[in-house]
Amino acid sequence: MAGAAAGSILILSSCSSLPPSVQPQVNGLVVANRLDRALHVLENQPQAYGAQNELLYILDRGMVLHLAGRYKESIAAFEQAKRKIDQLYTQSISKLAGSWVVNDYTVPYRGEDYEHVLVNVFQALNFAALGEYEEALVEARDVDAKLYLINRQYPEGQKNVYREDAFVRFLMGILYELTGDARDLNDADVSYRQALQIYERDYGPNYQVAVPLILKENLLSVSQRFDPAAFRQYRGRFPDAHFFSLEDKQKNAEVYLVQYNGLGPLKIQNTFPVVLPDGYAVKLAFPRFSERVVETASSRLLAQSDNGPGVSAPSELGEDIQAIAQKNLDNRRLRIYAKAALRPAAKYFLEKSQEGRVRDQWGETGTYVYRGLAGIYNVYSEQADLRTWQTLPAQIRLSRLILKPGDYALRVETVDASGRSVETIDLGRAALQAGQKRFYLIRTAR
């Protein structure tokens, strides 16, 4: 009997193990800005994440390609991620039964709700960086439908706080405004208003994210054209916002900086071993997020022309991924606790039901050994699911400069919480034309 039980534990080790070490290695290379090396590791070890972690592999690969500026390849990877997410969500419930027998590592990682939405966010920014703004809008518009479908699966009273995305609405407004077409400008006005509402109603109280100044200024620009009464109201509400008419914008160029700052949170495990009165042992295990702190807190976008003074603009927080991840997990905590309690209970009752057979065959000594081995199995097999998309940043920050047509040297200065310089990132030179909008994407993790 002891040999059979030991064999069972060996089998268990193959189906309940934590994610392999390759993913943290890739994340570490991304943090060190060694993106070519990270891609080399990913593309030379496509199976190293494990059979149940294919989605994580695709997400990390898409993100590394995105950060490396290989936007077309990143688009292909994120499209693959979308197909995989759809496939996993249509999977038969019977195929998920293994997670109730052993632990969640026995089934494929399906992704967190916010991770599904961020696929569209990064895909939209892929297209924006390529200047393919219609395709970027398609991705941004899909976020609404995705959030609706995600929350529809939960009963009333258990739906997520994260039901709308203010940053995506804000980005949609910027993309609509690019064309200058009257209909698109009207859509920009609608998107900016919706973004304002979500920032004020949801992002402020839930994630402590204030309305970005750029959003206020863009809303002033389009509302002057479409709703003079609203424009006057906004001018009174936003005394800190500079007013740029749409005509002024068309005479100048806009440079947007999207800064992926910090390191997304990691899941760690909380456990509570429980020894029952009849000698059995079980363990409760559930995940929680652990914040990863970096020195960089913010940034400034700077532009220097050959024949004029330099200008700069500070970055603003547009999306707090870390806060959304934590809130998303908090929303599911009761469901997680229920599963964390029911699964060990199911193991215990199953083992208890077999105790009589063991006693009949092996006597009290065999029963004592059986309980000990069952306890080892229970404690070893019960693992919280700590899988997560590790290459995500903690924040998405945004800054914007409105510049006269001409040649500029562009750079970014990152600063810590006290305003001291951390590093300078050279964006190169840009020949900007009237009416042009240009996006720059950077990653900061120092």
Structural overview:
The chain has 446 residues and is an alpha+beta fold. The protein has a domain at 252-446: Sandwich (Immunoglobulin-like), CATH 2.60.40. 53% of the residues lie in helices and 20% in strands. It has helices spanning 2-15, 22-31, 35-44, 54-67, 71-89, 98-101, 113-129, 133-152, 166-177, 182-207, 213-226, 228-237, 246-251, 321-331, 333-381; strands spanning 253-261, 263-275, 281-292, 298-305, 311-314, 316-320, 395-403, 406-415, 421-432, 437-444. A hairpin with a 5-residue loop joins β4 (298-305) and β5 (311-314). The chain is elongated, with a radius of gyration of 26 Å.
The stretches of 5 or more residues where confidence is low (pLDDT under 50) are 1-19
Helical run tally? 15
CATH topology of the domain at 252-446: Immunoglobulin-like
Annotation, overall tally of beta strands: 10
Q: Which of globular, elongated, flat, extended, rod-shaped describes the shape?
A: elongated
Q: Class by helix and strand content? A: alpha+beta
CATH homolog superfamily of the domain at 252-446 = Domain of unknown function DUF4458
Report strand %: 15-25%
Largest sheet: 4 strands, mixed
Q: Based on the structure given, which CATH architecture of the domain at 252-446 is correct? A: Sandwich
Major sheet: arrangement of strands: 6-7-1-10
Distance between the termini: 54 Å
The CATH first-level class of the domain at 252-446 comes to Mainly Beta
Summed over residues and divided by their number, the pLDDT gives a mean of 86
* Helix and strand pattern: HHHHHHHHHHHHHEEEEEEHHEEEE
